[in-house]
Design a protein that fits this description.
single chain, 20 strands, alpha+beta, five-stranded antiparallel β-sheet, 2 domains, Serum Albumin, Chain A, Domain 1
Length: 461
């Protein structure tokens, strides 16, 4: 249970692999802008401080329509059975983990206490019985709208009823040696991850790239590529509402080579990377990777955006609502439009070899830091010779939109000092860096890893 990070009050992106056909597809179930969104809402965005939470940031949830579509296209179990484990957890309760110590009735919830969500259990039971329509135009919809509007929000019954945005898409696809990387197209972060890895593949990285004599140069190049990736945040816009002709060029080897040629042995000012301003880092989201006995796999990232989303829970349904409209702060100066999906760093990826013998599923939680985390884990596995556990557990760094670099506490201090000599500005991370989940199948052997940074574990059957 990760109610602080994801849930049916948010949205999700699925990247799916069919082992029989070798085909990869994407299901986009991101939220959308309500019809009556406040016109000047984005004036509340600020580059140097966090947003004030509230119902004004709630977008139309898409999560359940995504589940519905995935179940219709790929599911075998009855719809109702999918909800039974969550219903049981919500009703009977679950131990509060260390990272989920928040407020309940004004009192702190302590680690290890049992947290029960009986109202949410009732809501999930109704959805299990009546289907997703119960949420979008049935009894749950009415309760949700009443609660949100009573708190001053603008979401309407028509917004929920008219949500039909969940759809299947063709993934982006680039070549990384013997592997093909498949990632979700805009408004997700797939195009930026693809660009960064395309830049870096030109260096011919290998396990020797992390030797004592090479690792400072290697990490410098990775950081520089991440900075160029940050400069392309415009590419995360909803293609149904924006001209995305530039995105096609971002995926070409030629464009990657142009950016690679601009990487020197020193860090540069933000403008060099097309970084016009900075944004506060965001946290949140949840990710899961699943593979079945036949080798079919899915990499899914789900989110209510910031931790606890809008900080508003519908008392009559138990649903925590998202604050996804805050993601439009990435596009300050461009007004959001009703029905538009907000930009997102969510990047669930699938990598496969041409013969299908090797398949890698990777994704992360961590808001705006997802892109750097997914990039580094893919590099660790494909180029630096690490196994799946080592690739995920290796100490990481994140490049902020302000051009500053955050390193995990245990990262090599000598490397950090030498990178500072190359004019990289290093700052301490405010919170835990992103959490990555991954599965690697090679021939018949499967290695599944859940990031220990959040005390996770893998499971099988």
């Amino acid at each position: 249970m990760n109610p602080q990070s994801m849930g049916i009050g948010g949205g999700a992106i699925f990247t799916l692999y069919n082992a029989t056909t070798g085909k990869v597809t994407v299901i986009n179930a991101r939220e959308t802008v309500p019809q009556n969104v406040r016109r000047n809402l984005l004036s509340d965005c600020h580059p140097h401080r966090s947003l004030q939470p509230g119902v004004q940031w709630i977008a139309v949830p898409g999560e359940l329509r995504g589940y519905e579509l995935a179940h219709r296209l790929h599911g075998k179990l009855p719809w109702r059975s999918l909800f039974e484990p969550s219903i049981t957890l919500a009703r009977q309760g679950f131990p509060v983990p260390r990272y989920l110590t928040t407020l309940s009735d004004g009192e702190p919830v302590k680690e290890g206490e049992t947290l029960r969500l009986p109202v949410l259990a009732d809501t999930l039971t109704t959805i299990a019985q009546l289907g997703a329509d119960a949420f979008y135009q049935g009894p749950i919809a009415k309760k949700l709208v009443n609660d949100i509007q009573a708190a001053g929000g603008n979401l309407t019954a028509e917004d929920l009823k008219s949500y039909h945005k969940a759809h299947q898409m063709e993934p982006l696809n680039i070549s990384l040696g013997e592997y093909q990387l498949f990632s979700p197209p805009p408004p997700s972060g797939g195009v930026v991850v693809s660009l960064i890895l395309n830049i870096l593949k030109g260096y011919g990285f290998s396990p020797d790239s992390l030797s004592e004599s090479e690792k400072v140069q290697t990490y410098h190049r990775v950081i520089e590529a991440l900075k160029f990736g940050n400069g392309q945040q415009f590419s995360l816009q909803d293609s149904a509402f924006h001209n995305m002709s530039k995105v096609t060029r971002l995926l070409t080897d030629g464009f990657a080579a142009e950016q690679r040629a601009r990487i020197t042995d020193q860090s540069q000012p933000p403008q060099y990377y097309s970084l016009s301003d900075s944004r506060p880092d965001t946290y949140g989201t949840a990710h899961i990777a699943v593979m079945d006995i036949n080798g079919n796999g899915v990499s899914v990232t789900s989110s209510i955006n910031h931790l606890f989303g809008s900080m508003f829970v519908s008392e009559t349904t138990g649903v925590i609502l998202n604050n996804q409209l805050a993601d439009f702060c990435l596009d300050r100066g461009e007004p959001m439009q009703p029905g538009e999906q907000p930009p997102s760093a969510m990047t669930p990826v699938v990598l496969t070899t041409g013969d299908g013998h090797s398949v890698l599923l990777v994704g992360a939680s961590g808001g705006s830091m997802i892109i750097s985390a997914v990039t580094q884990v893919v590099m660790n596995k494909l180029w630096f010779g690490l196994d799946m556990k080592q690739a995920i557990e290796a100490k990481r760094f994140h490049v902020k939109s302000s051009n500053e670099v955050q390193f995990e506490e245990q990262f090599d201090k000598t490397v950090i000092r030498k990178l500072e000599e190359r004019k990289h500005k290093v700052v301490k991370p405010e919170l835990l860096l992103p959490i990555v989940q991954g599965i690697f199948r090679n021939q018949g052997c499967i290695q599944a890893v859940s990031d220990s940074r959040k005390m996770g574990d893998s499971d099988g059957y």
